[in-house]
Amino acid sequence: MDFETVSENLTQSFRAIAGSHALGEVREMRGVSIAAAGVTFQMFNAAFLSAPVNSENELIQRIELASLHFQSRGLDWAYWVCAGWLTPSARRRGRDAFERRGLRHSVELPGMVAERLLPPKKPLPRIEIRRVADRATQDAFCGIGSTCFNVPLRWFREVFENETVFENFAAYVGYVDEEPVTTAATVLGGGAVGVYNVATLPGSQHCGYGEAVMRHALLKARERHGIENVVLQSTPAGYALYERMGFRTVTSVAVYAA
After folding, report:
1. Which residues contact 115 (CB under 8 A, 6 or more apart)?
2. How far apart are the C-alpha atoms of 26 and 10, rounded to whole Å?
3. CA triplet 55, 58, 60: central angle to 5 degrees?
4. In three state form, how does the secondary structure of the chain look?
5. Strand ranges across the sheet with 192-200
6. What residues contact 224, with CB distance under 8 A and at least 6 apart?
7. Which residues share a beta bridge with 49?
8. I want to staple 146 with a disulfide (CB 3.0 to 4.6 A). Which of 48, 122, 153, 182 is the partner?
9. Cβ(165)–Cβ(17) under 8 Å?
10. Cα(132)–Cα(183) distance, rounded to whole angstroms?
11. Domains of the chain with bracketed CATH
12. Can you tell me the distance from the alpha carbon of 182 to that of 251, in angstroms, rounded to the nearest whole number?
């Protein structure tokens, strides 16, 4: 697996969400993929590179193409940029090219892959894990995500309080003593299973709950699809855990928000 697997799975995760919304849009343009849910939370109105970028001028063209698309729809949006698509020169000048066009660098995430997960380093806690399939589990999933990702709850609900979202975006909530404390989700795309929305409430962190719900979600995906390959974009807090689980970094993903 290489950066293209990470890029395609990431794009597919946004397609799964955008395709479930009445105002959502999934579209392919020249070297740019659009997957927009049509929501307030701009990160889910997204553009992605879908082909190599060989020069700064070519990158500028791709930025302006996506910018015109979202401006015509009156949406706040974000550009998710997998570094593997950029030549070294385009990569060096890329941040300036985005920021000159009103797109602020928000975060840089390691894109990681694992052909097979390593076994846990220590026994995992026993927790009850439920797939998101009703209002109670949706509320729990949104509440944990809102807290852990510092996003207004109404924005998170606008994205995820939609039953059809969870048909292709398989989400799980882990419960301790009947209290929801942790989440994870998986999406199939690019010949791999992608892991998303791994989050644990602050008071329940460092107990192994996040790893437990993530491994459960991946087990269910493997049983359903027979795929061992896994990809994710890591936060700084999760990086050491993912390395212990057998992941390695193959690219980085920069996010620029308008």
Report:
1. 1, 228, 229, 246
2. 14
3. 110
4. CCHHHHHHHHHHHHHHHHCCCCCCEEEEECCEEEEECCCCCHHHEEEEECCCECCHHHHHHHHHHHHHHHHHHCCCCEEEEEHHHECHHHHHHHHHHHHCCCCEEEEEEEEEEECCCCCCCCCCCCCEEEECCCHHHHHHHHHHHHHHCCCCHHHHHHHHCCCCHHHHCEEEEEEECCEEEEEEEEEEECCEEEEEEEEECHHHCCCCHHHHHHHHHHHHHHHHHCCCCEEEECCHHHHHHHHHCCCEEEEEEEEEEC
5. 25-29, 32-36, 45-49, 78-82, 248-257, 104-114, 230-233, 192-200, 179-189, 170-176, 128-131
6. none
7. 32
8. 153
9. yes
10. 10
11. 3-110 (no CATH), 128-250 (3.40.630.30)
12. 27
121 token code pair: 């380093």
Tokens 């061992």 correspond to: 228
Q: Among all chains, which residue has been given the structure tokens 């991946």?
A: 218
pLDDT in tens, 49-72: 999 999 999 999 999 999 999 999
**Model pLDDT, residue 258:** 85
What's at 119, amino acid-wise? P
Is residue 19 within 8 Å of residue 12, measured between CB atoms? Answer: no
